[in-house]
Amino acid sequence: MPRERTGPDFIEALARGLDVIAAFTPNRPAMSLSDVASATGLARPTARRILLTLQELGYVRAEAGGFALTPRVLDLGVAYVRSQGLWDVARPHMERLSERTNESCSVAQLDGSDIVYVARVAVPKIVALAVQIGTRFPALQTSLGKVLLAALCPEEVDAVLAEPTRSGLTPRWQPDRAEREAALREVRARGWALTDEQLALGIRSVAAPLRDGTGRVVAALNVNTHAAETSLEHLVEHHLPLLLHTAGEISADFARLATAPHVTRTA
């Protein structure tokens, strides 16, 4: 389907290939050719050629009655994370935070009205929602998302939240505009965010911003707990100070990385 408002350098074939990859979601991990054509608005012959090309490149595999993505798709997201230096900077700090809290911790960034997880250190616990690199959730109902949204001006928040979520999850908390604005004002005032079973039953977490050398919020870091195991008091009194300290260390390291001279070695 031709797109509107594309420049002369726009590569339609590339855009269609990315549309096909994005059509696979947790609710439809495998799709037939007809499903892919319908989801992307592409003609069946076009969808077939794209799927076969992606299959030859290793991003898609054929299975009974259709197609599914392969783990190689993760390389696309990992390339982004590595290019930002977030994982290399955050990993040792996150590992120490996880050890001291005995909880999982994650870094996420904003993508439309969703958060996307870009780094994670997990502990083996049974939780209501599975999280891995690339997982996305509606931003407003997560502590990570509240931190990221609070860093935006009100007009930007409106524009971001006007975009439909691509997470496939319907959160428990559905605030009106006034309640949403009050929640984000509170986050801005105290510098961290809390969520208590607003995304899903049993999920409780706190999050803090990660900043670059200019003070701009580039990501958010959280500690995630199970509501049946960790009270709000323990989360705020014990985990939060450790989280804030860790977020400060990561931000400082990230700022130093951005200003460090880059040395090019030649053979």
Percent of residues in beta strands: 15-25%
| Low-confidence spans | 262-267
Taken together, the total number of domains comes to 2
Written as H for each helix and E for each strand, in order along the chain, the element string is: HEHHEEHHEEEHHHEEEH
Number of helices: 9
User: From the 3D coordinates, which CATH architecture of the largest domain would you assign?
Assistant: 2-Layer Sandwich
Helicity level, as a percent range?
A: 40-55%
By helix and strand content, what is the structural category?
A: alpha+beta
Biggest beta sheet summary? 6 strands, antiparallel
Give the strand order of the largest sheet, numbering strands 1, 2, ... along the chain.
6-5-4-9-8-7
CATH class of the largest domain: Alpha Beta
Distance separating the two termini: 48 Å
CATH superfamily of the largest domain, please? Answer: GAF domain
β-strand number: 9
| CATH third-tier fold name of the largest domain | Beta-Lactamase
Mean pLDDT: 87
Rg, please? 20 Å
Oligomer: single chain
